[in-house]
Please model this.
Amino acid sequence: MLAAYGQGVAGRTSQAPLDGQLSIQVNDDRLTLTVAKAPQVYLYGVIDADAPHRVGALIDSRKIPPGSDIYLNSQGGDLAAGIALGRLFRAGSMTTHLGVPRLKHRSPTTPKAAVCVGACAYAYLGGLYRWAPSGNDRIGLNAFVVTDPPANETGKTQPASGDILSYLKDMGINPAPFTPAPTTSPATSHDDIVWLSSDQLLATGLANNGYLMLRATYESSSGVPSLVLSQIVRGGVNKITLQCRPNGQTLTAYYTIGASRARQIVAHGTYPHFEVDQQEVLPRQLETIDAVDDALVISRPYTLAQLEQLLAAHTLGAWVSDTRNALRYGFVVGFGSVIKGTIRTYYTQCAQTSQSLNAQQR
Model:
């Protein structure tokens, strides 16, 4: 079903919204659900003060269920409403994108690229998974001053900066990209827009392209250390484990791709491998591949010398290349300073444990 909710009345299709009101289009037809695995919801136009109530009603009625894809195209509006929409998206574990709706009668002046500015940008940040814009889509951030702002041109008081900071904190967002430079005067800072590229959005954590923060868990059982690197992704968890052994450890990756797809990839006799900083780990053909539950599992022995390389590495990837074509399947995890510190602790303990296990076997 493709339904357009113009005046906030659920079930009323193909109705034009009131002037200055956010339009809502819900695509939940069979094809959309088969391909996207979730309804696609397009919010476009001005974000008005009542927009959160109308969207909330559709969420409560399950017309917009948890985990939906939200596509935004708005040049602003009521900032408090944008924040309220963001909180609704996060509560429903929804995914935010930029995008223009599918319209039956698109006029020649209808833009093909989405723009998300001001209140829209705050709503976008509410997505649990936030896709960076692609193509000609653009997102712009309004700087704010860390003081209570005045009423806007409509007479409505915008949220105090403390409320904005609280919202960003609740969403796990670093407020630095929103804060004006010291040279920016308060009189103009509310009108300043900073346009960010997809790379900048990903580098600052404003977008995550379906991956939440990587977590490192160090454990020691019976004196034998292990390290688990896990990352929640849309649809599951990708994981890399390091289990200490004599003369090194075993490196195992679990790539969540679905049980049927994992079995298909294994059956094709594809080539599994690991990459450190986008370079293959040698020697080749030491990896094994299997399908376990809904994950593709790649495993190989990993020496202490190879583990030491991770201390200076930025990324570790697990991949399966299809020998019949150029396709490959897998994932990459990035190492921040905290993750590297945990890897360093594991390396030190594993080196000591490995020597001890070696001595016991002699």
The first strand starts at residue 2 and ends at 5. The domain at 2-204 is CATH 3.90.226.10 (2-enoyl-CoA Hydratase; Chain A, domain 1). The radius of gyration is 24 Å.
